[in-house]
Amino acid sequence: MPELAEVKIMSEYINDVCYDRDFTSITLSPEVARRLPLDQPSDLQIFSISSKSRGKELLLGLGKDSTGNPLTISIAMGMSGNWIFCRRDKHPPHSHLHFNTIDGWSLCLVDARRFARWRWASWSSSRGPCPVSEKEEFRSNINSNLHKPFFKKPIHLALMDQTYFNGIGNYLRAEILFKAGQDPFELAGTAILNNPKILELCSTLPYEAYLIGGGQLKDWKNPFQVPSTGFSEWMKCYGKASESIVDRNGRKLWYCKSQLKPLYEGQTP
DNA sequence: CGTCCACGTCTAC
DNA sequence: TAGACCTGGACGG
Fold first, then answer.
1. What is the pTM of this model?
2. C-beta of residue A255 within 8 angstroms of C-beta of residue A241
3. Whether pLDDT at A260 is above 80
4. Cβ distance A55 to A7 under 8 Å?
5. Residue ranges of chain A that CATH labels 1.10.8.50
6. Domain A4-120, CATH number (from 3.20.190.10, 1.10.260.40, 3.30.559.30, 3.40.50.300)
7. Which nucleotide is nearest to A113 if distance is taken from CA to C1'?
8. Mean pLDDT in chain A?
9. Contact at 8 Å (CB) between A206 and A2?
10. Residue A56 among the catalytic residues
11. Least C-beta-crowded within 10 Å: which of A20, A115, A123, A229?
């Protein structure tokens, strides 16, 4: 579920609810304990929690270990992951990772489909810069690599690749291509060179989605419980467009032929 | 009841 | 480049 906007909202939620809290333990549900262990360092008795996001990746900071090294957990939220801060005796269904305070509260990762992943690590080296919080690095990372074979794939596939487009997912892909008037089947390198709107929208659209409270489509709900009314109107293409195909990776690509620049009219996949 | 579908990665032929 | 990994909601019979 969550793409850049939703992960950024979650990160701010975590900072909000964990501010000035003391945590003492990390616990896992039996469903995930074997597959995704997260052993608590023996010298980690009392810790704080702070959060950052970078594209679709979330990084929890738990202070430093006894030798001064920062303790961080890298988390990917999968399709249905979200966070809730609640009493320790009132964990909601499907809460699989819990950070427990000394006074009976828990920060819970709730994830019905269990696609979320976590590990003791810093930022993943396989993900590129964040198009929103590291806009210039995001752009230069792409512009300085445009000659590489990676950019010979169609733009609709390149946009889903987290090594360059960290944070872009299926609904943002559809909205970016649509609002850029971009033929989804043009090769990524030439599309990016000829249509500056693409990279610009990679930054502005996730930020817009963030400002209106995220994409509250199905199971994902803004943990701040902000009444989000505008999202279905903000979304112009995903789930609405006249055309869709299943892409090479099995994801549904939504696009609208009538919005393409004249150059591309009449062309077919 | 059943089938299809979902905002994402992973790993294994 | 399929599948594997999962649950639940929508919708059809």
1. 0.94
2. yes
3. no
4. yes
5. 135-264
6. 3.20.190.10
7. C6
8. 93
9. no
10. yes
11. A20
